[in-house]
Amino acid sequence: MKALMVSALSTDLSGCGVEERPDPVRRAGQFLVRVRAASLNYPDLLMTRGAYQLKPPLPFTPGMEMAGEVVEADSDSGFAPGDRVVCGTRLGAFAELVACEARAARAIPDHLDFAEAASIGTAYLTAYVALVRLARVEPGEWVVVHGATGGVGLAAVDLARTLGARVIATSRSADKLTVVADNYALDATLTAPGFREAVKDITGGGADVIVDPVGGDIFDESTRCIAFGGRLLVVGFTSGRIASIPTNIPLIKGFSIIGVRAGEYARQFPDRGAENLDAVWALAADRRIRPRVDRRYPLADWRSAFVAMAASDMIGKLVIEP
């Protein structure tokens, strides 16, 4: 099979390339899946640089989630060759074949194609853990989502709407925000940075919840427009700067700063992790969440996808189709 391999860590993707690799051999409790679509996530890019908390030994195939057709499965698994499944993998999705854990797989709802299905897991699980498990968002609360045109940000916008929250989406690009507003019912859009006073005016004092996958200056400004008792959710640092804060600020303003790691949450609390996965796929099956696939790339053009991710040049998800 062909697979994208990371043989050396670098900032310019020079250590990556598509190679011929032996087909994987599944173990009991696994599916062998022919990959039809694999979603690109920001951690995949960071792993090519050695800049993510998960640092797999070289060489490795990146890719955290994929969708495809079952090739082999245990006879008692409830699945058969040809069934359409989506599966979280942590590694290995950017390949033509993947051996994935059956417990991490779900049947794909009929109304979703492979690329749409592959775009749900990581983004929406992160949004679910952030908004439901950690922030406990209530209907009517004000939720600000930064980086709202990226994969996780757009998932948070979509899920917050489903939960009945009032949503303000921010991005550096006004044009991208127009596309988001045209596809998702928002209460407001704001370009960032420079959103502090507008958030306070719109919400009547401050946001109840702020979802921040950007970090840096965006985090700093967020601490100035969050309500007393608010929850500031740290999802990532796509800006490149990890922010710091004097502890007197959350003390005086009475807000919480909460770290969001959906995968680690599931590893720490396996039962709740399974419930989260079931909840997300129930929402997808009921058409209550709508992933947006921005562009699709063949495996041979993987570099274009990674370059677009590095430049945040997308609205929603980028997908590689082996």
TrEMBL record:
Gene3D superfamilies: Medium-chain alcohol dehydrogenases, catalytic domain (3.90.180.10), NAD(P)-binding Rossmann-like Domain (3.40.50.720). GO terms for molecular function: oxidoreductase activity. Residues 11-320 form the Enoyl reductase (ER) domain. CDD domains: QOR1 (cd08241). It comes from the Bacteria. InterPro entries: ADH-like_C (IPR013149), ADH-like_N (IPR013154), ER (IPR020843), GroES-like_sf (IPR011032), NAD(P)-bd_dom_sf (IPR036291), Zn-ADH-like_protein (IPR051397). This is NADPH:quinone oxidoreductase family protein.
